[in-house]
Amino acid sequence: MRMRDTFIKPMHPEGRRFVAIFAIITVALFLVSGLLGWIGVCLTIWCYYFFRDPERVTPARPGLVVSPADGIVSLIEAAVPPAELGMPDTALTRVSIFMSVFNCHVNRVPISGRITKIAYRPGKFFNASLDKASSDNERNGLRIEMEDGRDLAVVQIAGLVARRIVCFTSEGNVLATGERFGLIRFGSRLDVYLPEGVVPQVALGQTMIAGETVIADLSETVRD
After folding, report:
1. For the chain, how long is the longest CA-to-CA vector?
2. Residues 46 and 156 in one domain
3. pLDDT tens profile 192-220
4. How many domains does the structure of the chain reveal?
5. DSSP classification of residue 83
6. Which of 165, 172, 170 is nearest to 190 (CA)?
7. Residues 70 and 23 in one domain
8. Does 117 share its domain with 149?
9. Which of 150, 133, 140 is nearest to 65 (CA)?
10. d(CA 112, CA 109)
11. Which distant-in-sequence residues (6+ apart) come within 8 Å of 174 by Cβ?
């Protein structure tokens, strides 16, 4: 890897117009004040950095559930998946990953499978690190049917600053583990609902890398 590639990452197309807007504002700020102009430069660089879309190396072994987002594990608890996904009314292990405004916000599929349901629900904009964000905030959920017939859900949740959830895929599509499926602009959270009996292999506060960090191994299911 070249040294340049360590610091300069590709930018997702979703971010181009935002970087352009920041750049135009920066030019205007320079006409007012050099100090304000340089502040604008810093914000423009941050905007590009927010929309960075680096390549990731996804584990090749089948059955591994990987993180759908960069960020920090903020919650691990039992919870019922969103009703709009049409899954059984049974509490599953939910792993929540909080993304700050400094994390890469491109979201990736946690496990290979077919998208059987995509359900968007408008809502509020509480801090995404709070527990009530899962039930009250704006969200977009994906129900994924895996090769063994079991379901896994991943839910994009808007946060205090986030105001737009973007989903790139459609119902019926078959996606591979680590494939890009969406993003959320400016701070947010993703919840992963593991199949019944699957134990997470992550801990609270752990740093996650989308498409790379393993959340769980489906082959290690706890059975009664």
Report:
1. 69
2. no
3. 999 999 999 999 999 999 999 999 999 87
4. 2
5. G
6. 165
7. no
8. yes
9. 150
10. 7
11. 112, 113, 114, 115
Please check whether residue 58 lies inside any domain of the structure: no
Q: What is the spatial order of strands in the sheet that 139-145 belongs to?
A: 174-175, 113-121, 139-145, 151-158, 188-193, 92-99, 71-79, 207-208
Co-location of 45 and 116 in the same domain: no
CATH number at residue 75: 2.70.70
Full domain range(s) for residue 42: 3-50
Between 13-22, 34-43, 212-221, the lowest mean confidence (pLDDT) is in 13-22
Q: Does residue 56 lie within any of the structural domains?
A: no
For 44-96, what is each residue's pLDDT tens digit?
Answer: 887 787 777 788 899 989 899 999 999 999 999 999 999 999 999 999 999 99
Catalytic member of 33, 67, 188, 219 = 188
Alpha-carbon gap, residue 138 to 133, rounded angstroms: 8
Per the domain annotation, does 32 fall within a domain? yes
Known catalytic membership, residue 112: no
